[in-house]
Give the backbone structure.
Amino acid sequence: MSHSASETTSPPIAAATRIGHVHLKVADIDRSLRFYCGVLGFQLTQRFGAQAAFISAGGYHHHIGLNTWESLGGKPPAPGTTGLYHLAVLYPTRADLADGLRRLVDAGIALDGASDHGVSQALYLRDPDENGVELYWDRPQAQWPLDAAGNLAMVTRRLDLDDLLREPAPA
């Protein structure tokens, strides 16, 4: 049975609710740690041999779980199958997003795309298991684009990477 959003009668979820973490099936823990910790700068909080690892920013127990329980040596899902489109990493400032871009450039990791959505600026890439990864920064809500009726009017425009790289390094 499918339901459209207009059929939903439940009250909205609490406004302070956040996605706590993402858990990814990966083929090789060490390879994933080299990407997520070595390139992006997450910190390892706990590891269970070659089977699982938990990583975070700022000392949280984990923002991303990595495991090989069902995927050791596995291949990415074939095109046309369902699954994770991407995980999104929200940076606190534009300078921090620029730092993320510098890390990717230094590691020789290519982008799939870079967009300015009006509400946010985003970098799109793939991790070593071909999972989509979005690195982004949200503009302050007061700067979000609205249409004439006051509704959110997100866009997709090319993000100027040279301009982003001119952002000073975070303190």
